[in-house]
Amino acid sequence: MFYEGELHSSGNNSKRPGHKHDIRREFHKQFRELWRVDGNLNEWMDYGADKAVPEFQRIADRHDKLGYHWVPLVSDETFTHCSIDVLMLRPGKAGGLIIDTDIDNRLKTLFDALQIPTSQSQLPETPAPDEDPFFVLLEKDSLISSVSVTTDRLLATERFIRKNVPDSLTLSLDQSANRDHVVLIISVAIHATKTTLDNLHLIG
């Protein structure tokens, strides 16, 4: 998965209640495409000879919540969990993963955006026409079994320099950087706690 844009720490989300869902929408587009092009998942998009409703629609109906129909890739019902590997590129020096507590809080925002939301306050009242059903990675973030994070410096300055600095101010490159801007490359491996016919297509 790929994301480029602002990623705020979880403590700042009260100022922008829709921030997590903005990110969730970007991932929805990618997961919807994954279900379309993946040979195994694509079979669940079709009706099949003996099914009146495609399997993805059955999943969506089972996860009817907060006015949305959700289609999680990883869920309790499929006995799956996942490991996540994140490459985070951002303005500033490389490193800082251990001492920069803000990185940890920003990852919490990311993981919230990968799951079905728990509160209506994060959501518009109704989904957009292309968001019914809404594809997500996780039924809930407790299904993340391990996380690996690598941080590095984003060198493409044109991507993160603020454009709204008054002409009267002369700022250095570091001073004019939007520190909330990130580029994320996310890899996911799905694992099974119990192998069933319903999860072979996810872990195979």
Describe the structure.
This protein is globular. The two termini are 19 Å apart. It has a 4-stranded mixed beta sheet with strand order 1-7-4-6, covered by helices on one side. With 204 residues, the protein is α/β, with parallel strands linked by helices. 24% of the residues lie in helices and 25% in strands. The longest helix has 19 residues, at 19-37. α1 crosses α4. The chain has helices spanning 19-37, 39-43, 55-62, 101-113, 200-203, and strands at residues 2-6, 64-65, 68-74, 80-90, 134-138, 144-153, 181-192. The protein has 5 helices and 7 strands. It has one domain (2-203).
Low-confidence runs of at least 5 consecutive residues: none
Order of helices and strands: EHHHEEEHEEEH
Count the strands? 7
Q: In which range does the helix fraction lie?
A: 10-25%
Query: What count of domains describes the coordinates?
Result: 1
Structural category: alpha/beta
Strand content: 25-35%
**What form results from the Cα inertia axes?**
globular
Number of discrete helical segments: 5
How do the strands line up in the largest sheet? 1-7-4-6
Instruction: Please describe the biggest sheet, giving its number of strands, its sense, and whether it closes into a barrel.
Output: 4 strands, mixed
Region (Disordered): 1-21
